[in-house]
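Readers outside the structure-tokenisation community will struggle with the description of the input data as it stands. I therefore recommend that a typical entry be quoted early in the introduction. An entry of this sort, consisting of the sequence and the corresponding backbone structure tokens, reads as follows:
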Amino acid sequence: MSRPSELILAVAAGSAAGGVARYLLTEAVQLRTGATFPFGTLLVNVLGCFALGFITQAVLQQHDASPRLRAFLTVGLCGGFTTFSAFSLETVRLLEEGDVARASGYIGASVVLGVVALWAGMAAGRMMRSAA
């Protein structure tokens, strides 16, 4: 059994690797495609979803993966790469359980609340900047 500190270190290491990979890939794609559409972020989100799906099915369910490896690969690496993959996995699990209403609500709430929260955060930041 892994100690909580070992799990935290595994998540931290995976997050660092995933975050660096996200940055490098996003920058490389945006340099090649131009900045008019966020192709880099789109690619990261799609690849992250694929990676988390593959890892959960081919790696974690097929092998006796330690809690440390699970934490490193899922929460750490995939989470550091993109949290969109976690959102997608949770949505698919709800759909696989036949809970279409909850899955739809989760999708709608995540998108709408996320956009509204970002907009509100930007407004608060602008207000703070103009007050200074």
About this structure: The CA atoms of residues 27 and 100 lie 36 Å apart. Helices lie at 4-33, 39-60, 67-81, 84-96, 100-131.
